[in-house]
Design a protein that fits this description.
With 554 residues, the chain is an alpha+beta fold. The protein is built from 17 helices and 13 strands.
């Protein structure tokens, strides 16, 4: 398993342990709204877990590992440009130890070193009122830092998004009740007999330890900041590479940062719902030029790209790719259109894929004359009945309705499953469409001078499938469409049915892929516009021959 994935999972695990500890601590504080005595009872129960040998070891390990990984992430970042939420999490995480160190040493440290009773009574008395604001600030930093971490970890989960209103209420209530309980308990304790306090020697020793830990962490943080500054200055004199964004700017940068960090550092909008953690794939790009100079995808990147169906080596994750040479890229998902709620709906069609499919076109004959002398209501009513019948037949056979074009329909078969299944499904759908059309004609006989007729063209071959649309349109990219010569051939076969007085024109390629035998007398070469040679196709007035051929192989 890749080191990066290990680190992320360890940060999440240790963060969850610490957040659970903080939540239980705040809820224990909230008992102070009832009484200080109830706070002590709750504290005793908590300590049976947290102050056991195992509990103490787990908490200490989680605290030091989480802090160390947080500092590592801070120095590993090549840019401090990030979202406001990520910035708050980082800033609060770095500030927490500065407030937490004195609190821990004056409570648990005093207990371990001198046997000091650090139950609620003496602790609250020592904090109230002079240190109450600092305690509130510490609670706020810890809770916000942990809540943001949980949100960034879970935000792509549909279940989490459904529960967000309730979780948000808890996220506000728990620290609010905790601080109110702290204040209430502190007032009760300070109004009673004076609690135990540390002696002068113990207090001075704790102060020395606190200063040592406090200034030690502050010095470490200062050295890390100086290291970042020195690295930035050194990088200015090193080799540079060029990153060109198709349709956007060209920037110069230094090798080292990820492509996502390069985008952020230069203020270029770049989709990244998971924040660069290789969990959402929204930052993916296609490398147009310069791929040969780049490092190969690491295991984490390769696994995620494989999961979303990206087989082309030019497809990369910007959060994982660290350019070593000049390159030119296309951002595949516009930053302004991608939200956490939409990540689970993303699929391989969002950036395009190639596949062998069967494409069908159908068109109503004589629609212009049909609609010329009718009321608009009649035209819309009859056309909707007609299109409902045809699209119903397509969907029933596993096809995908690409689009409606007036009285015409384009459908794609074989987007999943085998090529043979897709071709056979298209042929079955064509037969079913003719049957449904007869039913529509029978139902609407009183409203029409003559029955409706259609022409259907079917062709199988290679096509590019993708969600096509303008980023400026609010519903762009919702429908999948097919592009390529296969689509053009199917459309022209449908047009050819007019000239030959047929209802269905099936290309020889579709018949071959479907693995069926159709009558030779229906076979012929058809000249199509844009084709040098005639296209072999089978023409039929009805679907009986196709039904019989499909029955033989079923």
């Amino acid at each position: 398993m890749p080191t990066g994935l290990h680190i992320r999972r360890l940060r999440v695990l240790t963060g969850l342990i610490l957040f659970a500890f903080a939540a239980s601590h705040f809820l224990n504080h909230a008992l102070g709204l009832h009484s200080a005595h109830l706070m002590e009872v709750g504290q005793t129960l908590r300590w049976s877990v947290t102050r056991s040998g195992t509990g103490t070891a787990i908490l200490l390990a989680a605290a030091f590992i989480h802090m160390a990984l947080g500092l590592y992430k801070f120095i590993a970042r090549r840019t401090l440009r990030m979202s406001v939420m990520e910035g708050m999490q980082l800033a609060f995480g770095l500030a927490i130890p500065l407030l937490l160190i004195p609190h821990v040493l004056q409570t648990r440290g005093a207990y371990e070193a001198f046997g000091f009773n650090d139950f609620y009574a003496p602790t609250l008395a020592g904090l109230w009122p002079d240190k109450a604001a600092r305690q509130g600030a510490l609670m706020l930093l810890v809770w916000v830092h942990g809540s943001i971490g949980l949100h960034l970890w879970l935000r792509m989960s549909p279940l989490y998004r459904k529960a967000m209103p309730w979780l948000l209420a808890l996220a506000v209530l728990i620290p609010a009740l905790g601080y109110l309980g702290f204040v209430s308990g502190a007032r009760e304790v300070t109004g009673g007999p004076p609690p135990q306090t540390l002696g002068d020697f113990e207090a001075k020793q704790i102060a020395v330890w606190t200063d040592f830990a406090y200034y030690g962490f502050a010095s470490l943080l200062g050295m890390l900041i100086l290291f970042r500054l020195a690295r930035a200055v050194t990088a200015r004199f090193g080799n540079t590479i060029t990153v060109a964004y198709v349709g956007g700017p060209t920037v110069r940068t230094h090798p080292g940062p990820s492509l996502l960090e390069i985008s952020r550092h230069n203020g270029i909008p770049h989709a990244s719902i998971c924040g660069g953690r290789a969990r959402c794939s929204t930052c993916r790009v296609r490398v147009v030029d310069g791929l040969e100079d780049q490092p190969a995808a690491n295991a984490t990147e390769a696994r995620l790209l494989s999961r979303v169906g990206a087989r082309d080596a030019s497809m990369r994750l910007a959060c994982q790719m660290r350019p070593r040479g000049d390159l030119r890229i296309i951002q595949l998902l516009p930053a302004e259109r991608i939200t956490a709620a939409g990540v689970d709906r993303l699929d391989r069609y969002d950036w395009g894929m190639e596949r062998e499919v069967t494409v069908m076109f159908s068109d109503m004959r004589g629609f212009t004359q049909f609609s010329e002398h009718r009321l608009p209501y009649d035209v819309v009513f009859i056309l909707n009945r007609y299109l409902d019948a045809l699209s119903g037949a397509i969907v029933a056979e596993g096809g995908y309705v690409d689009k409606f074009m007036g009285d015409g329909v384009m459908a794609i078969f074989g987007m999943t499953g085998s090529e043979r299944d897709g071709a056979r499904s298209a042929l079955r759908a064509a037969v079913r469409m003719l049957d449904h059309l007869e039913e529509v004609n029978h139902t609407l006989a009183e409203n029409m001078d003559e029955p409706l007729t259609i022409g259907i063209g079917i062709h199988s071959g290679h096509a590019v499938l993708g969600r096509i649309g303008s980023a400026k349109l609010h519903d762009a990219g919702n429908r999948i469409t097919a592009l390529g010569d296969t689509v053009n051939t199917a459309s022209r076969l449908e047009n050819a049915t007019k000239e030959h007085g047929a209802s269905i024109a099936v290309s020889g390629d579709s018949v071959r892929i479907a693995g069926i035998a159709l009558p030779d007398q229906a076979k012929g070469g058809i000249p199509l516009r844009g084709k040098k040679n005639d296209v072999t196709a089978y023409l039929f007035r009805d679907g009986k021959a196709i039904s019989n051929a499909l029955a033989e192989v079923s």
